[in-house]
Design brief:
13 helices, transmembrane, mainly alpha, transmembrane helix, membrane
């Protein structure tokens, strides 16, 4: 089996698993497929949806649009479609919660697709976006909209620094390899939600610290999304790297290059 075939199977398995999980939750059959842990898994559909759609964009759409006159019209159209779906779900108050909760995934996607599209990456822009998002959370945390959009804001807080500070080679294969920085980031993604869970449900902080922790608990979806998304592409890039001393185009496997 060639590396390309293995990577194709890996990609197919990744997307199939995420679609299966989201579909099983929406059609209420997850407990039949996964008798143990189904309830907890079902709480993370926003993470699975964001990881599937953004990965598809980055792996297959982004490299094909680079340099094309259709790059930004298509990207802008995709972002507007995501925003429209998000707004539809957000306003559909009588729909089942398992459906309407996906609004935050699509709000995040509406911002992330244009964000990841440029070939030239800027760490200062990533820090600015994350800083602005943090300011919105800190100074607007008492408002209903900031509370409702906690999961989407968490993604906008963490994703820019994840992709352009700690794990830059996912979007820019020419960026310096910072293995220690990348490993430290993955450790953070695993440890942070555990610490938040302990502080919220075991320690039971009160006052301002308690409010911060309770809001932070809603970052779980963002942590899971980034673990899935970055983990998948780290595996694909590593496998491709074993085939060539040069970084693969866009950081992915060879099949990302359009066929002539």
């Amino acid at each position: 089996m060639t590396t390309r075939t293995r990577d194709n199977l890996l990609s197919a398995g990744y997307y199939a698993l995420l679609v299966l999980l989201v579909g099983a939750v929406l059609f209420q059959v997850l407990s039949d497929i996964l008798p143990v842990g189904a309830k907890q898994v079902s709480h993370n559909t926003e993470a699975y949806t964001t990881a599937a759609i953004l990965a598809f964009w980055v792996q297959f759409v982004r490299p094909r649009l680079h340099g094309s006159r259709w790059e930004w019209p298509v990207t802008g159209g995709a972002a507007l479609c995501a925003f429209g779906v998000a707004l539809l779900f957000y306003l559909a108050g009588e729909w089942p919660t398992r459906v309407t909760t996906l609004n935050e995934a699509f709000f995040a996607l509406a911002a992330l697709m244009p964000y990841v599209q440029p070939r030239r990456r800027r760490a200062d822009l990533a820090l600015a976006i994350s800083g602005l998002t943090l300011a919105i959370i800190v100074f607007g945390g008492w408002t209903a909209i900031v509370t409702d959009m906690a999961e989407a804001l968490a993604v906008l807080l963490l994703a820019p620094v994840a992709l352009d500070v700690f794990d830059r080679r996912r979007l820019d294969p020419a960026a310096p390899a910072r293995r220690a920085r990348r490993i430290g980031w993955f450790v953070f993604l695993v440890v942070a939600p555990i610490v938040l869970h302990v502080l919220a449900y075991r320690v039971g902080l009160s006052g301002v610290a308690g409010d911060v922790v309770r809001y932070g608990v809603r970052f779980y979806e963002a942590f899971i999304f980034l673990l899935i998304f970055q983990g998948f592409f780290a595996i694909v890039a590593q496998r491709a790297g074993r085939e060539s001393a040069e970084p693969p185009v866009e950081g992915w496997s060879p099949q990302a290059t359009p066929a002539s």
